[in-house]
């Protein structure tokens, strides 16, 4: 009887050890399947395979257990990144052709990670390293190119060149709204716009003419200044020469008066202009 009791106790002890081992394995396996939401990312947990639509997606933080069937943790980057569409041509309404090579900076809007995952899940958003690249190529780059093409049709070729800042501002304002509707914030936009080759030549020629005109005007101004300087110098020299002649004349009259035996009457007290009366 005692031996049977001892055997039973041993079996129960073995069962207890097995249960403890299983618990440790389950806990360890579960811990290994817990994923931490990275800093500056927004975690989005999908449950029930997403069968109920957006209601099966929710924003989460910290470590998340993804062991249950139908669950998946998506991580949406919340930092600023850049997009670089291919260079394209756009046409003004009078058929003038321009080239744009746009680039832009943007970032996902915090709190809208669920919308981003749910709306772009078909593009491949499982890997956060390529998630935004996929969205750029499929959605955002097209928005940028279409905005430039459609807004350009509101201008003539000359009008576009003369109102380039206005054109780029209109494109930027439009894209800010378009990006927000796609759950992103546009932070910077550069067009890289270039005019048609013929217009580049015309602009260069006009600029050269302006530079040449300014050069001629400068040279003419310098010549006028040199002539004025020469005139002033000549006038100064003449005045100086005249002053010396009058002084010399005064000195001669004074000497003549001193040496004469005749009576001299001075008619004014400035320049000696005497009347000489012979005795």
Which descriptors would you attach to this protein?
single chain; 6 helices; alpha+beta; 3-stranded antiparallel sheet; about 280 residues; elongated
Which series of helices and strands comes N to C?
HEEEEEEEEEHHHHEHEE
Rg over CA atoms = 48 Å
Helical segment tally? 6
Summing up helix and strand content along with how strands pair, one would put the structural category as: alpha+beta
Strand content: 15-25%
- Percentage of residues in helical conformation: 55-70%
Calculate the mean pLDDT score and round it: 80
Number of strands: 12
Q: Which shape, going by the Cα principal axes?
A: elongated
Biggest sheet architecture: 3 strands, antiparallel
Strand order of the largest sheet: 3-2-5
For the terminal residues, how far apart are their CA atoms? 188 Å
Ranges with pLDDT <50 over ≥5 residues?
none
Describe what this molecule looks like in 3D.
With 279 residues, this protein is of the alpha+beta class. The chain is 56% helix and 19% strand. The chain contains six helices and twelve strands. The chain has helices spanning 2-32, 113-124, 128-152, 157-162, 164-181, 197-259; strands at residues 34-36, 41-46, 57-60, 63-65, 72-77, 81-83, 88-91, 97-100, 103-108, 184-190, 263-265, 275-277. The strands form five sheets. Strands 3-2-5 form a three-stranded antiparallel beta sheet. Strands 6-9-10 form a three-stranded antiparallel beta sheet. It has a two-stranded antiparallel ribbon with strand order 1-4. A hairpin with a 5-residue loop joins β7 (88-91) and β8. α3 (128-152) crosses α5 (164-181). The longest helix has 63 residues, at 197-259. It is elongated. The mean pLDDT is 80.
């Amino acid at each position: 009887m005692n031996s049977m009791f001892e055997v039973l106790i041993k079996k129960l002890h073995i069962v207890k050890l097995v249960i403890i081992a299983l618990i440790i394995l389950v806990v360890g396996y579960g811990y290994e399947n817990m994923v931490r939401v990275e800093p500056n990312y927004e975690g989005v947990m999908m449950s029930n395979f997403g069968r109920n639509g957006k209601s099966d997606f929710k924003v989460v933080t910290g470590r998340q257990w993804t062991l249950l069937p139908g669950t998946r943790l998506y991580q949406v980057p919340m930092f600023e990144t850049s997009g670089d569409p291919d260079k394209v041509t756009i046409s003004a309404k009078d058929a003038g052709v321009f080239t744009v090579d746009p680039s832009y900076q943007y970032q996902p809007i915090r709190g809208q990670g669920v919308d981003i995952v749910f709306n772009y899940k078909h593009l491949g958003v499982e890997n956060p390293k390529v998630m935004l690249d996929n969205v750029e190529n499929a959605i955002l780059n097209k928005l940028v190119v279409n905005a430039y093409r459609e807004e350009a049709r509101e201008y003539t070729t000359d009008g576009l060149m003369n109102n380039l800042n206005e054109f780029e501002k209109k494109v930027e304002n439009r894209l800010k709204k378009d990006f927000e509707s796609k759950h992103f914030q546009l932070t910077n936009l550069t067009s890289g716009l270039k005019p048609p080759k013929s217009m580049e030549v015309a602009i260069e020629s006009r600029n050269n003419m302006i530079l040449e005109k300014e050069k001629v005007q400068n040279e003419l101004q310098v010549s006028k200044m040199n002539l004025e300087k020469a005139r002033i110098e000549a006038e100064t020299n003449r005045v100086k020469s005249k002053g010396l002649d009058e002084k010399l004349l005064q000195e001669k009259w004074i000497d003549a008066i001193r040496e004469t035996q005749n009576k001299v009457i001075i008619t004014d007290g400035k320049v000696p202009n005497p009347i000489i009366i012979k005795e």
